[in-house]
Task: inverse folding
């Protein structure tokens, strides 16, 4: 999923940097007003888990890669705004420390995995689970959709940049991420079910 340097043209990476900066700034400003500092240890644990899970990746057509994302897992555990910050922090560290994802593509990677995956997955989950009762099928489908939505966004960015035709990159990305989404849904379900059973008070909205 991480797009490297040189795969996006100037108009695309500048646009994605701008869009990501606007939404991330808005999210951080809201968190400054609403943040519960008791969540800091939880956010650290969630970030470490997702960071490790994302290190297991493999090449996908178009120069990008396939791996778990963890956006809905972070949103359900810590909250969607907190998840957006967690995912962005992971992507920034991966970019500048581990060279995973390009510097010029950082805005696109944040847009795809920290913003689109988080909010699309969270709203699908909430739409299916209006009582916020952590229904297994809502958690699974929300996670699955979050992965697919991020893959579609990355495919469009690569195609708009002229790197690879959409007719080539979209089927390749969808093929792998439809499968990865199943794994992501299963992991999200397992982790959230375990936390619900052992420490339900730390779940978002349950404290």
Result:
């Amino acid at each position: 999923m991480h797009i490297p340097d040189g795969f996006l043209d100037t108009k695309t990476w500048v646009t994605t940097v701008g869009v990501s900066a606007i939404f991330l700034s808005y999210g951080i400003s809201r968190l400054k007003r609403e943040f519960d500092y008791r969540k800091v240890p939880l956010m650290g644990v969630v970030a470490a888990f997702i960071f490790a899970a994302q290190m297991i990746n493999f090449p996908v057509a178009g120069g990008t890669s396939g791996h778990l994302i963890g956006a809905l897992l972070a949103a359900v555990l810590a909250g969607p705004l907190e998840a957006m910050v967690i995912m962005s922090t992971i992507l920034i560290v991966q970019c500048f420390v581990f060279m995973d994802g390009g510097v010029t593509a950082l805005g696109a990677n944040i847009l795809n995995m920290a913003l689109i995956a988080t909010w699309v997955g969270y709203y699908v989950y909430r739409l299916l689970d209006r009582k916020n009762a952590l229904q297994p099928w809502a958690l699974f489908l929300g996670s699955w959709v979050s992965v697919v939505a991020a893959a579609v966004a990355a495919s469009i960015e690569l195609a708009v940049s002229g790197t690879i035709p959409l007719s080539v990159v979209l089927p390749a990305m969808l093929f792998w991420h439809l499968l990865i989404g199943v794994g992501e849904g299963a992991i999200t379900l397992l982790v959230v079910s375990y936390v619900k059973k052992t420490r339900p008070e730390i779940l978002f909205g349950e404290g």
Observations:
- Residues 73 and 182 are 14 Å apart (CA to CA).
- The beta strands are 58-60, 64-66.
- The mean pLDDT is 89.
